[in-house]
């Protein structure tokens, strides 16, 4: 900021004023003016808005309402869409089903063993229906909360003897068996080697455990051993970390999606060779 001054008549000089000193002197006045301007504009705007509000007449409101046509939330569905025309099966969902009086081969359910519609099994279920009505098929939850009954414990003991195991656990819902068993043993940081052909229940169990999942090609033991060797090499480089993690192989005895049998002898060979635990989902094979 510059000012002009006179030394003598006809002569002049230009003097410089310190900018920082200038703003220090007038900072309060400047801030006060700024605040007053903001308040004025705010109050004046509110007053102007109130004065210039345009109120619609009832006729104008009715016209706007009549002209408004809302867009549909979803597109129109054609009347011949399958969802609007469901087909219902007549009778039991056995090997063959009847739909609209025509018989079809049933390939939409997992009744590949033909249990549904088997008279011997239906008769046995009828005789046991009173027992199921009284005690159910399990605790349907943690026994520490819901308790249990001796019939279920006896059944677990018989199942363990039949399978040649120390103990067995009865689940009330087949899907939840493997989906909860995997996260019960595997934790975050563990490694699970999984066949790409496993069923949906196993996939949900893998998501729940949050372990590192290594997928190998379906029933390809060479691909599985390749992954096991790679992990073995990593463990040798960091033995301290290797001692804190666990390794599992997850397969199905009889694959529900492909009906293939797993190469059980090779899986057991890898178990002892590479020190891994095995999960065998035997939902389909146990029934067979």
From TrEMBL:
GO terms classed as biological process: ceramide biosynthetic process; sphingosine biosynthetic process
EC number: 2.3.1.50
Protein name as annotated: Serine palmitoyltransferase 1
Similarity comment: Belongs to the class-II pyridoxal-phosphate-dependent aminotransferase family.
Family annotation (Gene3D superfamilies): Type I PLP-dependent aspartate aminotransferase-like (Major domain)
Domain of life: Eukaryota
Pfam families hit by this protein: Aminotran_1_2
Ranges where the Aminotransferase class I/classII large domain occurs: 130-270
GO molecular function: pyridoxal phosphate binding; serine C-palmitoyltransferase activity
Cofactor(s) required, per the database record: pyridoxal 5'-phosphate
Organism listed in the record: Oesophagostomum dentatum (Nodular worm)
